[in-house]
Design brief:
Elements: H1 3-24, E1 28-33, H2 39-54, E2 58-63, H3 68-80, E3 83-89, H4 97-105, E4 109-113, E5 124-128, H5 130-144, E6 159-165, H6 171-190, E7 193-200, H7 206-220, E8 226-229, H8 232-244, H9 260-267, E9 274-276, H10 279-294, E10 303-306, H11 307-311, E11 319-325, E12 328-330, H12 335-340, H13 347-350
Parallel strand pairs: 1-2, 1-3, 3-4, 4-5, 5-11, 6-7, 6-8
Antiparallel strand pairs: 9-12, 10-11
Helix pairs in contact: 2-10, 3-4, 5-6, 7-8
Length: 363
């Protein structure tokens, strides 16, 4: 081999080795999702991966398909792969403590993303104001019933309300319920509404919600007046059961997330209200925070909350640093300006199957 060719070969080998070392030396960040069945999670996984890659991180994304043990095993496995940061969307805020505490002890910085993990070992918890979500859901349904001020609903003829909670393993579902109760408790005390069913939907699953509503309608002989449902997925499942009985569009029903299908149902006059949480703000926030945590930088805009306060469980000890983003109620009157014009959902998705003469002009 000539000296010139040998020099070129050596140069190629050196460059390949340098690239391999650089790639091998990239800091790893893990993202653990409870599931991808929930509409928003896959989109947020893609966005966080993109943003972390742009900051120079290798990203490991795992999805647990609603399996608590699998999520813990996946987190443990990511720790063995030497991740330095971890963003967790917990299937169960209690069960995830096991793996998250081990990760924190191994020096991994952990962010609880949109769902609380009930341990003070997490570095931060970021979400939306879930109690306000519940307030806005209940307000939307009460407004749909003409409450307060209605002469229809009295102690002798109270409005029959169904409470449909989210997954009981999700702490957010309980915060949402607390907000709902803040709004409706005075009307319960006055006797102008009554709760005829109070149930929770495992995994926030629309099919579970539909079956639950079928059973409720059978038990109540279809005599319900309002449904305070806790997200769009469960509301849409419940609406399927209500449609079969001719109740869709007649009985006010709430949701949250301002999903494309939820907003489409709103403009069709079926779902009454959703709650807009701009998730486009949450993913970049998580990425910036995990980047700063890994680099040892100070986080701003965080406030300390006691775990006992966040969970409603006095046995929980310690503080968690939190940031809760604001939320907004979505109705037929503001869905175009709030959701479509902002680009949160597309015009074509929101106004799907709506006749052209009943649509607003494209923005």
């Amino acid at each position: 081999m000539s000296r010139k060719i040998l020099s070129v070969v050596m140069l190629v080998v050196m460059m390949t080795s340098m690239f391999a070392c650089k790639s091998k030396g990239k800091t790893k960040v893990g993202i653990s999702f409870s599931d991808f069945a929930t509409e928003r999670w896959k989109n947020e996984a893609d966005l966080m991966t993109k943003l972390l890659n742009e900051k120079g991180y290798d990203v490991i994304v795992q999805e647990a398909a609603h399996d608590v043990k699998l999520q813990n095993d996946q987190i443990d496995n990511m720790v063995t792969q030497k991740i330095k940061g971890l963003i967790v969307i917990a299937e169960d805020g209690d069960a995830a403590v096991t793996s998250v505490d081990k990760a924190a002890k191994a020096g991994v910085k952990v962010i609880a993303y949109d769902r609380l993990i009930k341990t003070a070992s997490i570095s931060a918890y970021i979400s939306f104001n879930n109690t306000e979500v519940g307030r806005q859901e209940a307000l939307g349904v009460m407004t749909g019933l003409g409450i307060p001020g209605s002469t229809t609903w009295t102690k002798d003829n109270p409005a029959k309300i169904v409470l449909s909670g989210g997954a009981p393993t999700d702490n957010n579902a309980h915060l949402v319920r607390a907000g709902q109760m803040e709004v409706i408790q005075p009307y319960l005390d006055q006797g102008i509404i009554t709760i005829v069913a109070d149930q929770w939907v495992e995994n926030w699953d629309a099919t579970n919600a539909e079956k639950m509503m079928e059973n409720i309608l059978t038990a109540q002989q279809n005599k319900i007046d309002g449904v305070i449902a806790s997200n769009d997925g469960t509301a849409l499942g419940e609406l399927q059961a209500m449609k079969a009985q001719g109740l869709a569009g007649k009985v006010p029903i709430s949701g949250q997330d301002a999903t494309a299908d939820g907003c489409n149902s709103i403009v069709k006059g079926e779902q009454t209200v959703s709650v807009y949480k701009d998730i486009r703000l949450l993913s970049p926030m998580a990425v910036d925070m995990i980047d700063k945590l890994i680099k040892g930088q100070t986080l701003s805009d965080l406030k300390a909350y006691k775990l006992a306060e966040l969970t409603g469980d006095s046995t929980k000890t310690g503080d968690v640093m939190c940031n809760f983003l604001p939320v907004q109620q979505v109705t037929k009157d503001n869905v175009f300006d709030l959701i479509v014009k902002s680009g949160f959902q597309s015009y074509d998705d929101v106004y799907r199957d709506i006749p052209a003469d009943q649509r607003p002009a494209k923005p």
